[in-house]
């Protein structure tokens, strides 16, 4: 399916010279598995060096290239200590070239005593000695190094070096073909952007705003195009008009009146369902806004209309919680609700699972709640016509929308999210969806008292938790988010260590839940907490979304500065759900940057998720990458926030115009646009074209 011209870009990285199993791992860690990925592994920044005759000409902290004569090798007595090579410049100044760890082996070979070498690196002072630690280059002839006074600095992982990755990028670029232009001609001309391949080459060579912008624009255009194609496809499909008679909803006895926002959203959904073209609607509402009830009413409309509805949750914990809540609420209506999660983990074992599968097939089950398992091929439905997707930012936008187009008749889709997305990103994420907003919290909610506390007061905090728990209420303890580089296992280790120490104080009152426990263990842990049997829940961020235990009114978040504001907000939303006053303690580590300080202060100041999202964006600054992998709030890898703000509206219009003129993407430019979709793996957009 993929156009042949793109094949060289999707060649596995092993095909490059020098990539063996040893190098593959660190590359994979950076998400680099194909030529295309290396092409797009753009430099974080560039170093500019100055060639100097002698050290008197160079300043400390400066990046230099200099010719030196090696005089002596000094291994450290202590094995973990540094390995120093002493060398002299042309007028007799002494410099140490310092290596740590395994790098010292190469020093022996690279810097023989008595020889002249060109060394490139950052000049530093250590005590009264000048030194260069781990030089970027050591070469016999200066020529080549002197040519490259400006060099890219790439994001690395353990086991990679700058020269190694630069070499691989060079190979990838050599294999990269020129591709036809997919951007509107006038846009390329006005902005004076280079062609695609040239832009890649330039972006790796030096700071080049035009090249960077062009590459970012490509990504934005691909995303807009794909979303529009899916939307257009969806409009063409025939769904099933669902009109309920209200007989089930009337029997639902909710313990509270609906808020105005809930009533309005339900009406909007009801209006969509009554249409034949399938609904594609996003329900946006801050944590605690009451999305579950809206989803339930929507599903009951479907059941009243004689079809089945499904609710898809991102985790097993959430699926079970929804199941418990919804089963209780619908009891008086007589609608049949079932839970379906990963293999063998359904309550009651495989017999119950079989029964559920049967019930879905013969239509005796009206509503199914579960994880992605509900969409496995082995699960068939008599007539599934309505799908609710909860906390939908956890799923890829593509897959989500694809669901809408699966099967002969497209189901109506309601996606729900509590992630307050900054306005800039709404268009990117949901540009083509209809949106209902729950902009009103249920009455009686109390503000959460949020405090920032230094980690040195840990003992006091533990005593505070003890008093809280002693008073009959429950608490969450969220463990630090460890840097992504350290791997997800580190988060677990931190949680386990904290659990062990809290267990000494709280005994069996404390329970641990993290992402690597089996689904059964996780569910059992959550249930102990939800039932009130356990008083303190120690967790990684698995509790982030949706969990609802109203008696839990204290939340402790360790190393809060490591979390994004949006994520802190989500976490904090786990408390303040009942009528009791709630408290959130943000424990901070030692030294904080100015930004980190402001972010935590902002958490103290406001509870408005949308404001937090906007301010977070401001604080992180336009130039900084969104860190998509951690935060999940941007669907982009290349485009920075600044670029999104600057370029997305144009890219969006560009995509719209192209689709209006050439909806089938069959003109030459349309063909080029298809390549773009494949290049950014938005080919689910292309697949939409086939059906229609
Ligand atoms: P979220 O939008 O985060 O999914 P939930 O649906 O879990 O929120 O609702 C949060 C809490 O608010 C639940 O305990 C729910 O029973 C309660 N709730 C929902 N709607 C109302 C309402 N209209 N009045 C009072 N409480 C409500
Ligand atoms: Mg929820």
UniProtKB/TrEMBL annotation:
Domain Helicase ATP-binding positions: 272-438
Entry keyword Hydrolase: yes
UniProt keyword Hydrolase, yes or no: yes
SMART domains documented for this protein: DEXDc, HELICc
InterPro entries in UniProt: DEAD/DEAH_box_helicase_dom, Helicase_ATP-bd, Helicase_C-like, NA-bd_OB-fold, P-loop_NTPase, RecG/Mfd, RecG_dom3_C, RecG_wedge
Pfam families, sorted: DEAD, Helicase_C, RecG_dom3_C, RecG_wedge
Domain Helicase C-terminal: 454-618
GO biological process entries: DNA repair
Any one GO molecular function term: ATP binding
Keywords: ATP-binding, DNA damage, DNA repair, DNA-binding, Helicase, Hydrolase, Nucleotide-binding
PANTHER family in UniProt: ATP-DEPENDENT DNA HELICASE HOMOLOG RECG, CHLOROPLASTIC
The protein, known as: Probable DNA 3'-5' helicase RecG
């Amino acid at each position: 399916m993929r156009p042949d011209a793109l094949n060289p870009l999707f060649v596995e990285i092993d095909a490059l010279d020098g990539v063996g199993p040893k190098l593959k791992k660190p590359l994979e860690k950076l998400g680099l598995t194909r030529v295309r990925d290396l092409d797009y592994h753009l430099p974080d920044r560039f170093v500019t060096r100055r060639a100097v005759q002698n050290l008197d000409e160079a300043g400390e902290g400066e990046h230099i290239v200099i010719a030196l004569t090696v005089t002596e090798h000094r291994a450290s007595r202590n094995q973990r200590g540094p390995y120093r090579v002493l060398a002299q410049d042309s007028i007799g100044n002494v410099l140490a070239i310092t290596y740590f760890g395994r790098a010292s082996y190469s020093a022996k070979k690279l810097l023989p005593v008595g020889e002249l070498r060109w060394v490139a690196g950052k000049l530093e002072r250590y005590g009264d000695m000048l030194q260069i630690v781990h030089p970027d280059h050591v070469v016999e002839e200066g020529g080549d190094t002197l040519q490259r006074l400006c060099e890219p600095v790439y994001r690395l992982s353990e086991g990679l070096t700058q020269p190694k990755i630069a070499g691989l990028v060079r190979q990838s670029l050599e294999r990269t073909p020129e591709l036809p232009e997919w951007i509107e001609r006038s846009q390329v001309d006005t902005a004076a952007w280079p062609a695609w391949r040239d832009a890649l080459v330039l972006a790796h060579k030096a700071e080049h705003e035009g090249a960077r912008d062009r590459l970012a624009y490509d990504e934005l255009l691909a995303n807009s195009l794909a979303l529009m194609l899916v939307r257009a496809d969806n409009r063409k499909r025939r769904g099933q008009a669902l009109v309920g008679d209200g007989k089930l909803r009337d029997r639902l006895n909710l313990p509270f009146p609906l808020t105005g926002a809930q009533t309005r959203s339900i009406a909007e959904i009801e209006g969509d369902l009554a249409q034949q073209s399938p609904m594609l609607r996003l329900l946006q509402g801050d944590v605690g806004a009451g999305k579950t009830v809206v989803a339930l009413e929507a599903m009951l409309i479907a059941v009243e209309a004689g079809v089945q509805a499904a609710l898809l949750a991102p985790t097993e914990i959430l699926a079970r919680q929804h199941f418990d809540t919804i089963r209780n609420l619908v009891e008086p209506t007589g609608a049949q609700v079932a839970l379906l999660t990963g293999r063998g983990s359904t309550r009651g074992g495989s017999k119950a699972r079989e029964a559920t599968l049967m019930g879905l097939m013969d239509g005796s089950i009206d509503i199914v709640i579960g994880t992605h398992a509900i969409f496995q091929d082995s699960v068939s439905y008599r007539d599934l016509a309505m799908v609710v997707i909860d906390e939908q930012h956890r799923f890829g936008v593509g897959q989500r929308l694809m669901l809408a187009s699966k099967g002969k008749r497209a189901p109506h889709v309601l996606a729900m999210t509590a992630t307050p997305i900054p306005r800039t990103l709404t268009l990117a994420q949901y540009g083509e969806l209809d949106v209902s907003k729950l902009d009103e919290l249920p009455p009686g909610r109390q503000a959460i008292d949020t405090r920032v506390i230094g980690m040195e007061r840990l003992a006091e905090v533990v005593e505070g938790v003890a008093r809280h728990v002693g008073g009959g209420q429950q608490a969450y303890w969220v463990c630090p988010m460890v840097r992504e580089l350290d791997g997800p296992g580190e988060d677990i280790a931190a949680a386990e260590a904290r659990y062990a120490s809290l267990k000494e104080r709280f005994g069996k009152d404390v329970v641990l839940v993290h992402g690597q426990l089996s689904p059964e263990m996780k569910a059992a842990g959550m249930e102990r907490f939800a039932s009130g049997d356990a008083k303190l829940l120690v967790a990684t961020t698995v509790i982030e979304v949706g969990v609802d235990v109203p008696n839990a009114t204290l939340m402790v978040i360790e190393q809060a500065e490591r979390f994004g504001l949006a994520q802190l907000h989500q976490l904090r939303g786990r408390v303040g759900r009942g009528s009791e006053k709630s408290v959130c303690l943000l424990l901070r580590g030692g030294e904080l940057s100015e930004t980190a300080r402001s972010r935590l202060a902002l958490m103290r100041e406001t509870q408005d998720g949308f404001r937090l999202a906007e301010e977070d964006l401001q604080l992180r600054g336009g130039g900084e990458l969104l860190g998509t992998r951690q935060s999940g709030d941007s669907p982009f890898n290349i485009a920075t926030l600044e670029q999104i703000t600057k370029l997305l509206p144009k890219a969006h219009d560009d995509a719209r115009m192209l689709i209006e003129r050439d909806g089938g993407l069959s003109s030459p430019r349309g063909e080029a646009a298809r390549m773009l979709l494949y290049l950014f793996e938005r080919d689910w957009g292309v697949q939409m074209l086939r059906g229609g």
